[in-house]
TrEMBL record:
Its cofactor is pyridoxal 5'-phosphate. It is an enzyme of class 4 (lyase). The keyword Lyase applies. This is Diaminopropionate ammonia-lyase. Keywords: Lyase, Pyridoxal phosphate. Pfam families: PALP. Transmembrane segments: none annotated. Its EC number is 4.3.1.15. PANTHER family: DIAMINOPROPIONATE AMMONIA-LYASE, PTHR42937.
Amino acid sequence: MFVSNTHPSYLQPLDRIDAATLGADAHAKVARFLAQRDANAVTPLHALPALASELGVGSIHIKDEGFRLGLGSFKALGGAYAVMCLVLEEASKRLQRTLDVADLQSPEVRAIAATMTVTCATDGNHGRSVAQGAQLVGARAAILVHAGVSEGRVAAIARFGADMICVPGNYDDSVREAARLASERGWIVVSDTSWPGYERIPGLVMQGYTAMVGEALQQLPAAPTHVFVQAGVGGVAAAVAGHLALVMGERRPRFVVVEPARAACVHATAQAGHLVRVAHGEPTVMAMLECYEPSPIAWRVLSRVAEGFMTVDEADAIAVMNRLARPAGDDPTIVAGESGGVGLAGLIRAVASPDAKEQLGLDATSRVLVINTEGATDPARYTELVGLRPDQVLAAA
């Protein structure tokens, strides 16, 4: 369930490129881009004092990305940001002058964007962000979804004008098909996972995620001692862990990566000491985390800065959804999707395990940060698992 990081590169400095991608200067650039977006607002950070008391830790704070840019997940920060950067780079090259985010709506830049098609594979949330980014700048988007993506999530992407392409198989199959089609048709792949020879654009996606880390550090009453973040291919975990390591240095918190037991590719990689592709088995309810092969750049970061890796079961994720919807004491009501509360589920499992609790130093002085990475991005599925519609949960808050 929990394994410590024993990789030879653990506690070594980040690779130079990763440090540039995830550091303070990169975060400042992301913030500048965000300031130009409609509906931009800092997402809430909530304290969970009742749950902290139950678990025997000093405090728990949860950063709620269910309100991010109207898309309902942290993914709104990555894909759209990468699309905006790519359009500006292409326009700067063609127009032979340096352009910035304020130029994106100029007629000449939009005319260039209209000649560009961006594509990606998605479980739902990343594709929505890429599609929205394309719509914002006037580019085209072709989004690939696999058989496990719900109709509700497909419709949520399509409303941004994207061409939807259905692919047999799982997420990793759709990633490979997106790369093939892009090569054949001259599209630009905006993926949140990397592969050999393809790292810069996933790096931009991860760079976008640093926005929520910077916000959280400003909102917290004291620096966290522990951070639990969920992983699919590992991009968000690496972005959070990498940024914390770069801006906090020796004061950085202990960082734990949490995955579904049915799709624990980062956990398996940590155990093996090298990149591992795990077998595709029974689907997990944690649909946004159902990935079977880590992103190499994410692993490059996590191998250096993650304290440990752990898995949670299906029931753990569902229990957290329900706990946040029906909180105890003075804890706030929070709508968390199937993958949203997985970091919190990891914390709960860790304190219940004497070995993990001791290894991580979790005690009454611990200040824990977790991230609700998505709200009810599939309202029908949320209602099925929680027994209440998202609006009913929010109305009771």
